[in-house]
Amino acid sequence: MKKICVVGLGYIGLPTAVMFANHGYQVLGVDVSERAINLLSKGQVHIEEPGLQDYLNKALVQGTFTVSTTPEEADLFIVAVPSPITAEKTADMKYIESATASIVPFLKKGDVVVLESTVPPRTVMDVMMPILEQANLEFGTELFISHSPERVIPGKVFDELVNNSRVIGGINRESAERTKEFYLSFVKGEFHITDVTTAEMVKVIENTFRDVNIAFANEIAKISENLGVNAWEAISLANHHPRVNIHYPGPGVGGHCIAVDPWFLVEKQSELAKIIHLSRLTNDGMPSFTVDKTLEILKSNDINNARVAVFGLTFKANIDDVRESPSMEIVKQLSREDVDLVSFDPHVKENTVPSQTQSFEEAITRADSLVILTDHAYFKNLNPFNLVPLMSNPIVLDTKNVINREEWELAGFKVYKLGDGKGNPIG
How far apart are CA 97 and CA 109, in angstroms? Predict the structure, then answer.
């Protein structure tokens, strides 16, 4: 049985590792987090993803998955560590560098090294390969190197690991083909073979397209408020055009991809990436826009020293991932204002901000304003008639079009929606 070593057991690395472990490979999962390793060694997952616990349980019962803080010899090495941006909006390569260096002592002739992390184009060529040279193996004939970026969405990772098409870029054709052989064990989607730098570019521009689209939607939302138009309705109707597919607005863009990857292109080609840069600035400005809107609503309703309940801390619905979440920035900014702030998220089980409570009742009780930042199913199922008696002032700002305006107004709420100028007296 061939062995795979996966370095990085986060939201991508761990599902990928247990998927391989359930499809004919012996897998070693490696992470620098002792907490993650301790939990996994006890059969407990440290991240939320539907199906993950079941896949882990099966692999452990089969004896095909083990964990460690250090790599071992293997036939395939997968690097799936973070590639965040710095405060200066440039790529931080330290995790890629350290993960690559950690596998060098264990490389042997015939091994395959695959980078799954989303990175700036030329990372494999300019960052990884100089480190891998220390293994004294000839690239493309003795050591095979590829980039095969993940293309999954949190909440549907296992379905998309199997069914999505897969881009594999190798330093040569043989590297790509050897990489494909491993992924064929579970991927049913179409494979697309290319060179390594093109593969890096593909993943970055996929997420940049979505970022630019969302920035456009956010501009439409602001314009709609001023014109007395419901942006959600307008966008929905526009999308009935056979060649139009506009995304929807929101309080910002988060996650490990869309909020990060466009900066890689700005960093590489700042003089050319004008639209990309402006879109990033537009989306990064939405938390401040949301905070200003919240404060304006309170002012227009003559509420001072308000108790504000923020609902939703994750960057998307029905997951526990707060990476780059605009909600976190909104909470940070609101905490500087003259408000009594409390935040709640049913999916985030450990307190991530000082204002967070694990109690829904504590969050809503005596609140003067409810601000919905994430479209969790939990929030969509709230009964507004049950909330009104608990609040000091039944006011809601819905930034994700979660609630039904008519129902909540019937219950006694004053309803404000981001991008809905028709029902927004301050728009």
Answer: 21
